[in-house]
Design goal:
By secondary structure, the chain is mainly beta. The protein has one domain: Porin. About 10% of the residues lie in helices and about 70% in strands. The chain has 1 helix and 8 strands; from the N terminus they run αββββββββ. It is elongated, with a radius of gyration of 21 Å.
Length: about 210
């Protein structure tokens, strides 16, 4: 709940600032652009997010996107007394559909993104220290209702923020390799999750 309140307040303050600075005359937003995530506000999960912006009409936007995330960490003093390395990779393909409302240099939009995501997490011993290996893979779809705004700082450049409510439904497959300490095993499960995100984007238009 704290994440949601912080994200909502951030976008609200941004849109109010934009309204105060916006010009009275309205202009049609640029047709094509590229967006890049530069920060996340109280997000459950972050990554490099790239958007392709297509304003099909003055009041309608289609926005395909690609999210990538990769991380790695080492634990030299795990609970089992074994050095471990954890690797995580995730990707998501999505497309968003948004209604646009423009007032001068400010554009406020709302709609939703839908997509498919996949991730893999592995834990394994390092340096010949023995121990077991664990791998968890998951894949499924996401639905992301979104409220956002962007302010045009220049003719082809904007800064914006979004509040997102992300719902995911995925299947998980976990594999455990005993490493001589027990039998190998595999399990499958499914899960759904819902959480809030706040994002900050820059967009460059042609």
């Amino acid at each position: 709940m704290k994440r949601f309140i912080l994200a909502v307040c951030s976008v609200f303050l941004f849109t109010q600032l934009g309204i105060g600075l916006a010009q009275e005359q309205e202009t049609q937003p640029p047709k094509f652009g590229i967006g890049i995530e530069v920060a996340d506000i109280a997000s459950y999960m972050s990554g490099s997010h790239i958007l392709l912006c297509y304003n099909a009409a003055p009041t309608f936007r289609i926005e395909p996107g690609l999210t990538l995330r990769k991380s790695s960490s080492k634990d030299e003093a795990s609970s089992a007394g074994i050095d471990e390395e954890t690797d995580y990779t995730m990707w998501m393909l999505s497309v968003g559909f948004f209604k646009l409302n423009q007032a001068g240099k400010l554009v406020v939009y709302y709609g939703a993104r839908v997509g498919y995501q996949s991730s893999t997490e592995t834990e394994k011993p390092t340096g010949g220290s023995g121990g077991s290996e664990f791998e968890n893979t998951s894949s499924g779809y996401v639905i992301i209702p979104t409220l956002g705004g962007e302010f045009f700082i220049g003719k082809g450049f904007s800064l914006g923020g979004e509040v997102q409510l992300l719902y995911s439904s995925s299947k998980h497959e976990s594999t455990y390799s005993g490493g001589g300490q027990g039998a190998d095993s595999k399990s499958e499960s499914s899960a759904s999750d819902i959480y809030t995100q706040g994002k900050v984007y820059v967009r460059f238009y042609l």
